[in-house]
Amino acid sequence: MTLTGLARLRVTAAAVACAVILGSAAFAPAGRAAGAAGVPVSAARNSGRVTAYVVNYNSDTVTPINTATKTALKPVRTGYGNPDAIAITPNGKTAYIANGAGGCDQVPADSVTPIRSATNTALRQIKTANSHGGSGPDAIAITPDGKTAYVANGSGDNVTPIRTATNTALKPVKVGCNPDAIAITPNGKTAYVINSCDGTVTPIRTATNTALKPIKAGSAPDAIAITPDGKTAYVVDIGSRHGIGHPPAGTVTPIRTATNTALKPIKTGPGSDAIAITPDGKTAYVANGYSNTVTPIRIATGTALKPIKTGTGPSAIAITPDGKTAYVINFNANTVTPIRIATNTALKPIKVGRDPEFIAITPNGKTVYVVNGGSNTVTPIRTATNTALKPIKTGRQPENIAITP
Fold it and tell me: What residues make up the domain containing 71?
């Protein structure tokens, strides 16, 4: 999560719940590509039902939402641990919830809770911490074949693979300092882990769960997305401050996945903090929280195009499956800005709830779901008309969202 406005600071999710806020600074989360969970999902469906799962940080629950009726179902208890991340298997049968943020006077639960989507039943927690480490799980990605979930443990500086067939945690893989985001190539061969406090990305060979040589990617990498063809990973660097009153300059570092080589960074805007790539792989969109803009990047040439003006504090992005519209959360404005991708034109902002944090879009592209952390709701948006519908009540401080394929 990040602070937006001139007084931004980087804080953990636990600190968000406990912090004393001085002055007029406002909190905003670090946005994630691929439906807020950072995990691409296949088109294969578990059933005719599509369910959105909302992680409630301060309730230790997950709220399932029936997307057909836009109604909240009975909350699912995840167990102790302040859940804050979620990923769903490509077949839609199981959601995995990270319980690792801890609370104001708590230690992290260091576990992952599987939820069976057919019955919305929580299964036994999987411990990520053991004699080899694995504390503070706060990001998850699942391989395209659905066989392995990779859990980034921010406090343990490692990643725990989980065998989904048996829900068994394997030996953690050592990575860099404070891993807090993870993405997997479409062929499932490599997981890329962002190490936020040492400015690197660690590739993990999934066949052997072996960490490869870290790749330098800026000073404070914060988000990652991989092109649909799997050839390039784009790493967003929020940047470092250059003195009081000088916001950090954001960049995006492309990484050639065939050789794990970092290419020349692309300048974006101050406070770059989220990224999403169009389904055709032609354009990446980067949210710049300090300059209230989104920078399109032409992937074929690695060229940043003219920034698009949004509302204040853009912090998360999702793109419709047909690739026609990008939806940008403006945390400080409590709005969402649609962007027409064909012309890179910002449309009229849509009012949502207080402190919108995460965003996901249904597989048919008809509805956007916006998580409002400050009002304990989710706002559905009808994409055909860009109209906000009646908010759906969730648990306390909804923190993330993922939708079954």
Answer: 2-403
Domain count within the chain: 1
| Cut 0.85: pTM above it | yes
Q: pLDDT, tens digit, for every residue of 284-319?
A: 999 999 999 999 999 999 999 999 999 999 999 999
What is the domain-level CATH number for residue 372? 2.130.10.10
| Tokens, residue 125 | 């927690």
Look up residue 154 and give its DSSP letter: T
DSSP H helix total and E strand total for the chain: 1, 42
Place of tokens 């072996």: 210
Beta strands in 341-393 (DSSP E): 345-346, 350-351, 356-361, 367-372, 377-382, 387-388, 392-393
Residues 6+ apart with CB under 8 A from 84: 13, 55, 57, 98, 100, 101, 138, 399, 400
- If you ran DSSP here, which 8-state letter would residue 203 be given? E
Instruction: Calculate the alpha carbon distances from 110 to 50, 85, 89, 392 in Å.
Output: 29, 12, 21, 30
